[in-house]
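Researcher: I'd like a structural prediction for the single chain below. Treat it as a standalone chain; there are no partners to consider.
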Amino acid sequence: MLRDITIGQYYQTDSVIHRLDPRVKLMGTLIFIISLFLDRSIWIYLGVTIFLAAVIKLSRVPLKFIVKGLRAVVILIVFSAIFNLFLTQGEPLITIWKLTITKEGAILAAFMVVRLLYLIMGSSLMTLTTTPNNLTDGLEKGLGFLKYIKVPVHEIAMMMSIALRFIPILIDETDKIMKAQMARGADFENGNLIRRAKAMIPVLVPLFISAFRRANELAMAMEARCYHGSEGRTKMKPLKYKKNDRIAYGVLAAYLCAMIALNIFLGGRII
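Model: Treating it as a single chain, here is the predicted structure.
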């Protein structure tokens, strides 16, 4: 289960999406998320599905690899669907004991599941096609205008990059600790929720110690190399827009306009 988490991982291959400027991919992810929350209309979600399928095809990242990352959040998605299914007021469809499934609840739960799935897939696609270094540079360049109001853009971008880079490392560390505890007789799968939570304590303690040790080693390594922020630093590969990046911006603008047009003309209609 832990190894199914793909957030923070980079999938090495040569594709149009991989070669795009990270600022384009960050803007594309933002536009994609905005389009998901425009309205609950099947036509809008059809457009979102076509756009996401086209991006996945261009990225050359296997669909199985992206779907594998959804297994880690299945429980969260199921809980969200259940809450929307039973707690939404409306026209009753089915009554199970004291719980009632309404028509509005079923529609809302279906759209919520699709929205969460697409949200995770779109966000994962950005990290799968962008190296942590490029992501840091893209965030720093893209949010550069905030420097004028004294926002530490470089430091924020660096922290996000380090956090994303640490996710796969901590997942591997957790997997090793759990296997070591299971070899000593620990049981993480049987028992009630409280018993499982108690069984996780021997995993969390060494994991936190390992995380703090790694963070301290990284801080010492950066200090030993005289790291002092973005001031006066140069880059080996500075970001520059190319022809494909400008075309991608045009495609994103057309996609956003199409989604807004669908929302205006078909807004409020489920079908």
